[in-house]
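#struct-help
A.M.: can someone run this one for me? Single chain, 554 residues.
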Amino acid sequence: MFKKSKKEDKELQMQAKAGLEDMEDFDSLDELEAIAAPAGKKKKLPPWAIIPVIGVVAVIGVAGAMASGQKADKGGQMETVKAEREDVRQVYNTTGTVGSDKEKVFYCPVNAPIAQCNVKVGQVVKAGDLLVSFDTTNLERDNQQSELNTLSAKYSSQDAIEQSGRAAQTQAQTQAQVEAGIQSLKAQIQQKQADIDSLTQAAQSAGSAAAANAQKAAELKGEMQKNLDAQDAKKAKLENLQRELDGMDSTSPGYLDTLNKANILTNEIADLSTKYRALDQQYNSIGSTDDGGVSEALIQAQAELDSLKASLAEMENSRSVPADTSLTGAQLNNLRTTENLAELAQLTTEELLAKGREGLKAEFDGIISDVKALEGNEAAQGMELFTLVDNKSVNVILEVPANDFDNLVSGSKATIKIGKSSYKGTLVSVDKIALPNEKGNPTIGAKIRIDNADDDIVIGVSGKVAITVDEKKNVVCLPNEVVNTSTDGNFVYIIQNGTVKKQFVELGIASNSKVEIVKGLKEGTEVVSDTSGSIKEGMKASDAGMKADTADKE
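D.P.: on it. Structure tokens below:
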């Protein structure tokens, strides 16, 4: 009854799309699909891709004009598109700065003039190349002062490492105690459940019990209630102490004292729980005047089981993510650098002379990224001379707007375009905090490892990045522009019994040209693709077609 969307129009669009796919200025097929898609819902291309597609847009415009003329000739025919199964890939585009994972700053090992400097910024060097040589004529050192400096540096490093180790040990003990408490509660719950099973069985066969036991049962019940009240009070104190611990780190004043108090309370609660079980066992052994107290004991045991489960849930929720008490990479590097400088200062005159004669050589293949040394200058020991970066182990550093953080998933694959070359990459890290950039806007830092780096990569330049956020195969899809949005949700127009009907749909992931239909449409459903705005629910399909033609002519 109704024809599909213009076949000729689609063929022209596909021809334009095929010409685009060979262009190197696009990072993904989705951007090409966005160019080839019918006019409608706007898709914003990245600024770097606007110029290359101007000519292509003109081609598509001509194709659209031709198709529009054909539509006018056909007159009154509804334009539709089928919901079809396709592959869809959602891509996030951004930019970043190319950096290196391996960087070595070379410091001067001696107090001596620089005899020869064979380095300049951007120079490619090989491992073993002699980069700086020294004039060792007047090389001298004060050995006593050097020894003192070495001892001070080593003691400082040792103290920092030992402090970090003690903090980690304390934290591990705390976590172990929490885990032990959890296991203890689980064992108590298991035992209490066994008690309940036993009481249930006893209740079914119990007859009557001596009235004399009723008084004793009441007394035990009172003691048990006091025990529970005491447990609740101590648990409340333990919660307060835990909140204090959450606000501290292992080096905070009073941390260990607060931790010990918490441990004492934990043990006291466990002791009370043990006493409670003993009271409960006495209570269960007394019975009552009707069924031996089994029913009442069963109720009490169930209440205690609920209390144990609540305590277990509370303790499991109190598990805190262990704070990282280890030294950061920068701190360790700083300690090593300090020790290295101190050890160099302690070397005898002969050892320093040997180092001066040896000069500085490249430790690995790479590129000189910074030079502080100048031939003929007097170089002081510890002075920064030059920096060597590895151009094979490289990454791209990103600063992504905080609102886009959900597009950053560690392990996601990416395509990086640097200059005229394209590379494959993997998102290896995402910062867990948003920080303001130079303009004051919050951004999330992330790093992408370039998996197939080559000698053409230039450190420090900008790279265009396309991250694959999600990808699905063989799912029901529609072109983006045929999906409408209202306050009630997303919807499309379909033809049902000759009448236009609004059909609400649930959307999944989307590329630049198509969107996944999760719910609301079946594969093969004909969807109205007219985007002129003249289509309304309830109108006859033939009327809708004529109105759409009128809108095109206007």
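A.M.: thanks! Residues 143-205 form the longest helix (63 residues).
D.P.: also worth noting: Confidence is low (pLDDT under 50) at residues 1-75, 545-554.
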